[in-house]
Amino acid sequence: xxxxxxxxxxxxxxxxxxxxxxxxxxxxxxxxxxxxxxxxxxxxxxxxxxxxxxxxxxxxxxxxxxxxxxxxxxxxxxxxxxxxxxxxxxxxxxxxxxxxxxxxxxxxxxxxxxxxxxxxxxxxxxxxxxxxxxxxxxxxxxxxxxxxxxxxxxxxxxxxxxxxxxxxxxxxxxxxxxxxxxxxxxxxxxxxxxxxxxxxxxxxxxxxxxxxxxxxxxxxxxxxxxxxxxxxxxxxxxxxxxxxxxxxxxxxxxxxxxxxxxxxxxxxxxxxxxxxxxxxxxxxxxxxxxxxxxxxxxxxxxxxxxxxxxxxxxxxxxxxxxxxxxxxxxxxxxxxxxxxxxxxxxxxxxxxxxxxxxxxxxxxxxxxxxxxxxxxxxxxxxxxxxxxxxxxxxxxxxxxxxxxxxxxxxxxxxxxxxxxxxxxxxxxxxxxxxxxxxxxxxxxxxxxxxxxxxxxxxxxxxxxxxxxxxxxxxxxxxxxxxxxxxxxxxxxxxxxx
Length: 497
Known about the structure:
Blueprint: H1 2-15, H2 23-57, H3 61-89, H4 91-110, H5 115-143, H6 147-178, H7 183-202, H8 216-239, H9 244-266, H10 274-278, H11 280-309, H12 315-321, H13 323-344, H14 346-364, H15 373-400, H16 408-442, H17 450-479
Helix pairs in contact: 2-3, 2-5, 2-6, 2-7, 3-4, 3-5, 3-8, 3-16, 4-5, 4-7, 5-16, 6-12, 6-13, 6-15, 8-9, 8-16, 11-14, 11-15, 11-16, 11-17, 13-14, 13-15, 14-15, 14-17, 16-17
């Protein structure tokens, strides 16, 4: 057996992949998790800083949304290209390019002297994030091929994906209150520097296989379609669903994406090989993550409004309020991801997790004007966190299991793409439901009823979020195959016992 282990390690060294038992793999996980944390927390950390940045740089409420939208447009539309480039040119190379670019874009944003410079910096952050996120997840997938180790690694990674938004709220509150809004961007320089050093020392990659040309028509249609779709959904949040600047881009985006699918069926080297999406487990993962991503915005966005507007929390108190949820996410993601996912697969875990998250959202529908954090908010947050941990770790694992290594980058990119689209849809839908509920409640009433109207809006959002999680549970139960996940088709042979 000892000679077999030695042979495995020698073979793994030639291929550039760490062998099971090699501590380098776990250091690689630390590096990849650090990069994932940077990308995920950046989605919320800037939201906390925006009011202060707006006062400092002097831009309007209408312009403010572009600081968020600029990041979302670039990130969401370029993910598939970023994933394919990591398959073509090497995942470690794209990971390092993404890290350095993201850090430089963050420095540009931190030094912004006006709205235009800030928006450009955020768009560049999104573009480099689109190179970084798929490369990180595909490196995780190709580094951890042993099912038991893979379960543990994806448990940690899934916990960070689920908890990063809450970390962003807390860090954003601390930095805005005690330093400057600019540090909400500049903090990425510290994280990226640590990750670059770690990646240089610890990350290993496989040799890049021979490949064909990049699918230019597929790339153009994918980017154009996703830009139009994300832009239209962003407008729906502010302008409503019937506005021409909402409907037009959404319809155009869907039409262009239909053309993209037609192209992918015919070209020799597609940007998104349809074999990646049509596998039941991967399709189940993408659908579950998209729907759960829509529901998550009911937690982070509107519960933040409730904590600050009704309970009078400061930004730091709001960030701290989410910490128990992060603890419960990490608890179930690391335990279920480590021990249960490799044995039973995602089918029992993801539906149960989504149902638990839905139950937590239903608990939040009991919130009122005189509710307390400890009695009203905290139990719901803990329940939601326990559910989300069961959703994120197994779905991310399933979405990259059984995929050929030449497709690992684009399979990883699809996870981030559907989460981005799901989040955009969720934000737009929940915002419109919130506004409609308030308008309906205030009909025929005086301004004195405004606080009760806001509570009505929050209740509506929490009910709909519970509905999203319920839908995610049904979709996961229907689409996922029963049993453990497929093994890595490109992994070395199993060790002898």
